[in-house]
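Um, can you check?
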Amino acid sequence: MDKGSFDPVRPVTLAEIEAARARIADTIVRTPLLRLELGPDAPDIRLKLENLQPINAYKLRGAANAVARLSDEDRRKGVWTISAGNAGQGVAFAARKAGVPCKVVVIDTAPQAKIDRMRALGADLIPTPFDQCWDAMEKRAFPGMEGTFVHPFDDHDFIAGNATVALEILEDCPEATRVIGAMGGGGLLTAIGSAVKALRPDIRVLGAEPETAAPLARSLAEGGPREFGGWQASFVDGAGGRSVFPRMWERLRPVIDGTVVVSLDESRAAMRLMAEKSRVISEGAGALALAAALKDPEAGGTTVCVVSGGNIDLGRYCELIA
């Protein structure tokens, strides 16, 4: 069955996550987990540096697993995805390694750094306005596109691959009391939650959303998948969707404990703090988890923040943290 079709939603099992880890071991790197040194009275915060993956974003994990699971026939037909940049890079990287043609319907406001890197990885790009991309992600179709669609978040194999980040977190930081990840389409949160709740259900799993695009907060408040009426584009381009897809609500709700909404200024401050204290370059979405941890500190606990990516134009980065 084509990966773009509407397969039934079901839980991602620990066995599938472990199998994904073995499958992608020669493509991804085991990223470091380091303590953010903020002083003796500061909260205990650790940074999981997925910005150090070969594509500088966690989505290589899911993309590598999804491409590896393709049949020989599907590989010959090629793959395509929809992306603001990181999923596109992940699928393009994995496709190039497997010798599979790749196309990316790319949001036309994506940072130039992400566009350049997708092209460098051999992807054929189709720039498209955000609204059309979001609609195509929901419908899993785009005019003229052929081959196998690898959904950037609502894909079982993609989620299983991304969940391997949580296995590493639990092994490297067994004292963790909560894990925070950025909320875009919900793939990262579902992945983290699937692994954490299978192994350590006592650990809280939280999302982090920008105030300009926080559909999960509204969905949790109202008890079902909702749109975010006041959506605005921002430098947090890798997170913050217009809505929570009903299928993603099914995936998310059993494995997460909540979400924290942060301002754009708080996201910017988190980017700067990581640069000052740890010399870590993070894109806007990658800083959301830290911004959430600082806004909602946990006394006496250990918070792991997933720095989901570091793909940002350096000129823009310098403007944001200045």
